[in-house]
């Protein structure tokens, strides 16, 4: 259990805790703890939310923590996926672009808009419980997609495919129970990215899953921020 948890931390954060000698089965088991790792990412946001900071400064601090603690992993996936999935290209061109480490116009455009919306959404959200829970739910969402859709190749997504679903679903359950609308929109965002990748690439990979996590978090935050603004 500890080995699987350390692997989940190593896969989803910048913490250098990857154990030596991990086997394929250990990678699959690590997915059981993906929501728990998300809660650890949300914990500093929840603890710092009550600080009497201006909205803009709080949003920048929260954005830096959320992205920085992951090593910008999911943002990188979003940028790569944007270049590959958007625009008018053949499937072969899209697959080539997905492997290209250089960033194109779609990556810069999508990345800039994403960061602006994420900063603004975080600036408006000060609910500690929401901030604690939403990263955990977002990191559960790729797991059922991995079970349902084909992969583009082995890679890291192939290593974690086939892991448990029941335990991470139970760990992620508090968020949809407490915040059903943000949870639904987060689910639709992750599913939409996966469907687009299936149509235009023929399958999923780690970049697509990372993009789904990034957009799921943004969708949850935006919907919650708008709801609080309208109801307030």
Total beta-strand segments? 0
Tally of individual helices:
14
Please give the alpha-carbon distance between the first and last residues: 44 Å
| Shape descriptor | globular
What does this structure look like?
It is built from 14 helices and no strands. With 232 residues, it is mainly α. The chain has one domain (34-231). Helix 1 (2-12) crosses helix 2 (24-30), helix 8 packs antiparallel against helix 11 and helix 13 runs antiparallel to helix 14. The longest helix is centred in the C-terminal third of the chain and has 26 residues, at 206-231. The mean pLDDT is 92.
Condensed summary:
This protein has helices at residues 2-12, 24-30, 34-48, 55-68, 73-85, 91-99, 105-124, 128-140, 142-148, 155-160, 166-172, 174-178, 180-200, 206-231. With 232 residues, it is mainly alpha-helical. The termini are far apart.
Question: What descriptive keywords fit this protein?
Answer:
mainly alpha; globular; 232 residues
Please specify the SSE layout and strand pairing:
Blueprint: H1 2-12, H2 24-30, H3 34-48, H4 55-68, H5 73-85, H6 91-99, H7 105-124, H8 128-140, H9 142-148, H10 155-160, H11 166-172, H12 174-178, H13 180-200, H14 206-231
